[in-house]
Design brief:
Layout lengths: L1 H12 L1 H40 L2 E5 L2 H4 L12 H10 L1 H4 L2 E16 L4 E10 L1 H7 L23 E5 H6 L3 H4 L20 H10 L13 E7 L5 E12 L4 H4 L2 E5 H9 L8 E6 L5 H13 L7 E5 H4 L1 H39 L1 H9 L4 H36 L3 E2 L8 E2 L8 H18 L1 H8 L3 H5 L3
Parallel strand pairs: 3-7, 4-6
Antiparallel strand pairs: 1-8, 1-9, 2-3, 2-5, 2-8, 4-7, 5-6, 10-11
Helix pairs in contact: 1-16, 2-14, 2-16, 2-17, 14-17, 14-18, 16-17, 16-18
């Protein structure tokens, strides 16, 4: 206690220098915590997006993830209803699960034949009720800018498409999609007129334009290969065109009711699903839930070629992004740590020079070398402790101010704004680790000056001016 008391009094002897050193430490820790809080919020935001769309875990055919995207019939699950019931009623999983819902995903061609245009699309057939409940997951209490599922309460033959699909299929006016009026094609660019006989034949064999529906919604024809490999066509009413967050998905997305998607692929055959999405109350429950699901696959469902896949495997972009941010955070932390290290070392070195005669006096009256070292290391520790406390307080205050502003930003790979927040409050592990590292760096910074002070010759120190 005497050493710590003496360290505090020595720091107050030159308040200006101690204050500047403390400010540098506080700014460094505040910067690290704010950036770490920003990364943590991005991590939770990305995780929330993926969990709301795909669930924490998915039960699939064991080869679907690698080979099944182009052939849902070959890699689907015929008895998916039995599997859903088994998972929902399992006593071990019941307390962990929020939603268990099937999906069917496949590729096809969507056409607006009244305008003579079509394009390849990615079709997602979902159980609307299950997907609506999945959208409500917000375990991290984030400010959510996402919209409710548009297919909720709609008829079975209703679809939602991406705005990019609407632009290509010339449905902008009907769906009120902005910024998608292309320049008119010049007549001469269309080539020479067809001969009269060929034009008459084309008009006679052309598909009739779909009749207007009573709801006034535009019609879309979707072509896909059924389970026997034959083409199958379904006409759906397009309810909305919604931006899907990522342009690549927005340019190909078509969302259907699960029943409609199953009719398109399987027709009169027994319906199948390509995945069963399992959403949990908390992400931390994934290991326990996965272990139980794999146990069910080994026992009750041992005759089914199934596998369990987590959301990180399904979305490799998530892990890649986390690795990138971890590298950036580590670089910034090391850089700021080096600045703090040299700042504290410089402060201690100047203190040693100024107090050379005092060090000689202490040595002359019997103070041992380790006592001199302890005195200066204690000063570094005291600076580190105060810097850690003030840095955490400043970071919490600034994070609260930033969060109250309700800012938005557009992250890479997205064309729509998301909520910008800094998550520091509640991240106890991040704050504790950062504070401990700062204190250790401050103590290490004082070791070299303290060792130099302890090695001083008593006579030389006493006559120092």
């Amino acid at each position: 206690m005497n050493t710590l008391s003496l360290a505090c009094r020595n720091l107050l002897r030159n308040r200006r220098r101690s204050l500047m050193t403390l400010v540098a430490m506080v700014l460094g820790l505040t910067t690290v915590l704010l950036f770490g809080g920003f990364i943590r919020d991005i991590t939770y935001g990305m995780q929330g997006d993926f969990v709301r769309r795909t669930g924490h875990l998915q039960i699939q055919h064991q080869d679907y993830f690698r080979f099944g995207s182009g052939n849902p019939a070959a890699y689907g699950m015929a008895g998916y209803q039995k599997i859903v019931a088994l998972v929902e009623n399992d006593p071990t999983l019941a307390s962990m699960i929020t939603v268990v819902t099937p999906t069917l995903q496949f590729s096809g061609i969507a056409g607006n034949f009244s305008a003579g245009v079509s394009r390849t699309v990615y079709i997602s057939g979902v159980d609307v009720d299950g997907q609506s409940r999945m959208r409500k997951w917000n375990d991290y209490k984030q400010r959510d800018l996402s919209r409710r599922l548009s297919l909720s309460g709609s008829a079975a033959d209703t679809a939602v498409i991406g705005t990019g699909v609407a632009r290509v299929l010339q449905l902008c006016a009907a769906l009120k999609v902005p910024d998608c009026a292309p320049e008119s094609i010049k007549p001469e660019a269309a080539g020479e007129a067809l001969p009269d006989d060929i034009a008459d034949l084309a008009g006679a064999t052309a598909a009739p334009k779909p009749a207007a529906t009573s709801s006034g919604l535009p019609r879309l024809e979707i072509l896909a290969a059924n389970s026997r490999g034959a083409p199958n066509v379904a006409a759906v009413n397009v309810m909305h065109a919604e931006f899907q967050g990522v342009k690549e998905l927005d340019d190909a997305y078509v969302g259907l009711h699960l029943s409609q998607a199953q009719k398109l692929v399987f027709g009169a055959s027994p319906p199948q699903a390509t995945a069963i999405q399992v959403q949990l109350h908390h992400t931390a429950q994934i290991p326990a839930a996965r272990e139980r699901l794999e146990e069910l696959l080994r026992t009750t469902l041992k005759d089914e070629p199934l596998a369990v896949v987590d959301y990180e495997t399904l979305n490799p972009f998530y892990g890649q992004t986390l690795s990138m941010f971890a590298a950036i955070f580590g670089f910034i932390a090391v850089l700021i740590g080096a600045i703090v290290l040299f700042t504290v070392a410089n402060t201690m070195s100047m203190a040693v020079v100024e107090r050379t005669a005092e060090i000689g006096t202490l040595r002359a009256i019997g103070r041992r070398r380790k006592g001199i070292r302890a005195m200066f290391v204690s000063e570094g520790l005291v600076l580190g402790c105060f810097g850690a406390l003030l840095g955490i307080a400043a970071a919490l205050l600034l994070a609260w101010v930033i969060n109250q502003l309700e800012l938005t930003w557009t992250p890479p790979g997205r064309n729509e704004a998301v909520a910008l927040a800094v998550r520091v409050a509640g991240e106890h592990a991040m704050m504790m680790v950062s504070a401990i590292v700062l204190i250790i760096v401050a103590a290490l910074s004082a070791i070299v000056p303290a060792a130099r002070a302890a090695r001083m010759n008593i006579v030389d120190a006493l006559r120092h001016v």
